[in-house]
């Protein structure tokens, strides 16, 4: 694990391949702040428009890691002058990110047409759960709802057991933030060459469905059964599963799909292939699973990690998020770093010619004048909006 210094909270020059790109983010939770953090990690400069009341936002910017890398200004968008404050920032940005339900931005006077009229090159990134249209467009939901409806959650289960929530990694982040970032950057490339911005409509059900592409293909080919826990990659196969070890809470992953890797696995266990059914004899999978489970239960997780270290058996220890920082491979790449005493992921991916850095902490929203000045506002403009009531001090 590498310690990274906190440093200057407002570096003069952004680094990374997106240096020079500016975006405005409408405050929220889930995929939009994660997408914003990814953009600033690659060098973009962002400002977040926070509501007067923080809601679910974590007030300690040091530990709310998805909020790092851009400053916030408090704007009351329901105040008569609030939308004009937002538009003044949007007109100098390349990207707008928003994650409200369909129609909310329009009701605030900040819909796509208004913003694109003010800034024709703007990429208007929209993030929703169910999409901008359809009978469920206005329905409330969270990651687990979207993963369920999009057809993914049913397959996160062992045979005969209930599905297990995959944290909020699938819809919020994999199918949400990552899809939004991809779409926004594609639209930025288009706008820079054509001079015309556009709306990017990203929905978490769309992104989750995209992540299931491989399995739709396998199902069409007759290689994936709809009953969970019976297939090659969903714990149905005994050589692609998680096993308990001798120590309480110790587990290893076995992922030896290919015959050479499977042979290395058997060798590590001290089992002879001649004494076992064929690897891909599905009828014998329960027998194989029992043999593997019995063998792996005789030693601790770390013992097995040592046995299989340096082999191609595809056996790895199951680590928690703190243990992962000390794993030699993650440590060698500084995948997890400490910033001001807080363990967090380093910026990814890595760029050979335009290196990136860990996103900094945000300034306090009470320092809005400094942030607005960096976005080109004059002292007179800042004084006018400060006295209007459109940018109140945040409440408790």
Describe the structure using short key phrases.
single chain, 396 residues, alpha/beta, 6-stranded parallel β-sheet, 3-stranded mixed β-sheet, 14 helices, 12 strands, elongated
Summarize the structure.
The protein has 14 helices and twelve strands. It has 396 residues and is of the alpha/beta class.
Write the layout of secondary structure elements.
Blueprint: E1 2-4, E2 22-26, H1 31-41, E3 45-50, E4 71-74, H2 82-90, E5 95-98, H3 104-107, H4 112-118, E6 123-128, H5 143-149, H6 169-194, E7 198-203, H7 204-211, H8 213-220, E8 240-244, E9 251-255, H9 259-269, H10 285-296, H11 301-308, E10 315-317, H12 328-332, E11 336-339, E12 342-345, H13 368-374, H14 379-388
Describe this structure in words.
The protein is built from 14 helices and twelve strands. It starts with a strand and ends in an 8-residue tail after the last helix. Mean pLDDT is about 90; it is low at about 5-10. The strands form three sheets. Strands 4-3-2-5-6-7 form a six-stranded parallel sheet, sandwiched between helices. It has a three-stranded mixed sheet with strand order 1-11-12, with no helix packed on it. The chain has a three-stranded antiparallel sheet with strand order 8-9-10, covered by helices on one side. The protein has helices spanning about 30-40, 80-90, 105, 110-120, 145-150, 170-195, 205-210, 215-220, 260-270, 285-295, 300-310, 330, 370-375, 380-390; strands at about 1-5, 20-25, 45-50, 70-75, 95-100, 125-130, 200-205, 240-245, 250-255, 315, 335-340, 340-345. The chain is an alpha/beta fold and about 400 residues long. It is elongated, with a radius of gyration of 25 Å.
């Amino acid at each position: 694990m590498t310690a990274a210094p906190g440093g200057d909270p407002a570096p003069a020059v952004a680094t990374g391949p997106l240096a020079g790109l500016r975006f405005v983010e409408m405050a929220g939770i889930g995929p939009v702040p994660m997408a914003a953090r990814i953009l600033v990690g690659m060098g973009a400069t962002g400002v977040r428009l926070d509501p007067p009341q923080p809601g679910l936002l974590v007030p300690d910017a040091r530990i709310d890691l998805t909020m790092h890398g851009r400053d916030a200004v408090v704007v009351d968008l329901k105040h008569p002058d609030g939308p004009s404050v937002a538009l003044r920032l949007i007109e100098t940005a390349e990207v707008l990110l928003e994650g409200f339900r369909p129609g909310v931005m329009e009701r605030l006077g900040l819909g796509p047409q208004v913003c694109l009229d003010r800034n024709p090159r703007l990429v208007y990134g929209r993030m929703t759960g169910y999409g901008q249209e359809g009978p469920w467009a206005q329905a409330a939901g969270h990651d687990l709802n979207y993963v369920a409806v999009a057809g993914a959650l049913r397959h996160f289960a062992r045979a005969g057991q209930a599905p297990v929530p995959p944290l909020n990694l699938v819809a919020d982040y994999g199918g949400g933030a990552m899809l939004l970032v991809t779409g926004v950057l594609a639209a930025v490339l288009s706008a820079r060459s054509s001079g015309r911005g556009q709306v990017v409509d990203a929905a978490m059900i769309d992104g989750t469905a995209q992540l299931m592409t491989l399995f739709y293909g396998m199902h069409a080919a007759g290689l994936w059964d709809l009953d969970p826990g019976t297939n090659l990659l969903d714990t149905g196969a005994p050589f692609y599963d998680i096993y308990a070890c001798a120590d309480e809470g110790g587990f290893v992953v076995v992922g030896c799909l290919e015959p050479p890797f499977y042979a290395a696995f058997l060798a590590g266990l001290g089992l002879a292939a001649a004494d076992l059914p064929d690897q891909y004899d599905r009828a014998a999978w329960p027998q194989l699973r029992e043999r593997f489970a019995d063998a792996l239960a005789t030693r601790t997780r770390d013992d097995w990690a040592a046995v299989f270290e340096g082999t191609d058996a595809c056996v790895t220890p199951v680590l928690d998020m703190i243990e992962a920082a000390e794993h030699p491979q993650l440590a060698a790449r500084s995948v997890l770093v400490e910033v001001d005493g807080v363990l967090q992921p380093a910026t990814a991916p890595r760029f050979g010619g335009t290196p990136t850095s860990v996103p900094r902490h945000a300034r306090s929203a009470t320092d809005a004048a400094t942030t607005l000045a960096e976005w080109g506002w004059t002292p007179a403009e800042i004084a006018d909006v400060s006295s209007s009531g459109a940018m109140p001090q945040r409440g408790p």
